[in-house]
């Protein structure tokens, strides 16, 4: 993979990407990574959301379902999304937006999910 960026360049490259929103939530659902694409799609700055719960982009009527799924994933050997799926999100200004999301676990050596990395994009 000679054309691949070195891993130490991966985080800055993901942080600067404005075409896809990349968000990391820890085991408590708190935001630990929020890239430029998330700022564009959701309207919140990375500084404003750091440490907040990720449900700030989840419409109120979907939060119980969101947290139930999140709770099943954390602490389990969950393998992530099978593919891109539709999701409705809420922007800082309260507007709803239809997106596609792909979820993948962040795992420790025992393959138990300790966080979730979500990638969002506008529908194709």
Task: Walk me through what this model shows.
There is one protein chain. The chain has 124 residues and is of the alpha+beta class. The protein has one domain (20-121): Beta-Lactamase (2-Layer Sandwich), CATH 3.30.450. It has 4 helices and 5 strands, in the order H-E-E-H-H-H-E-E-E. It has a 5-stranded antiparallel beta sheet. Strand 1 and strand 2 (31-34) form a beta hairpin. The protein is globular and about 40 Å long.
Strand arrangement, major sheet: 2-1-5-4-3
Low confidence ranges: none
Overall average residue pLDDT: 94
The counted number of beta strands is 5
Principal-axes shape call: globular
Structure keywords:
124 residues, alpha+beta, 5-stranded antiparallel beta sheet
Topology:
Layout: H1 7-16, E1 21-26, E2 31-34, H2 36-42, H3 46-49, H4 63-73, E3 85-90, E4 96-107, E5 113-121
Summarize the structure.
The protein is of the alpha+beta class and 124 residues long. It contains four helices and five strands.
């Amino acid at each position: 993979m000679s054309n691949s960026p070195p891993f130490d360049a991966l985080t800055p490259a993901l942080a600067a990407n404005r075409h896809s929103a990349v968000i990391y939530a820890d085991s408590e659902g708190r935001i630990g990574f929020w890239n430029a694409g998330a700022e564009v799609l959701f309207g919140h700055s990375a500084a404003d959301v750091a440490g907040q719960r990720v449900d700030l982009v989840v419409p109120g009527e979907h939060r119980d379902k969101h947290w139930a799924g999140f709770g099943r994933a954390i602490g389990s050997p969950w393998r992530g999304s099978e593919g891109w799926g539709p999701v409705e999100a809420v922007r800082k200004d309260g507007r709803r937006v239809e997106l596609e999301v792909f979820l993948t676990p962040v795992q420790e050596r025992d393959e138990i999910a300790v966080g979730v990395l979500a990638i969002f994009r506008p529908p194709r």
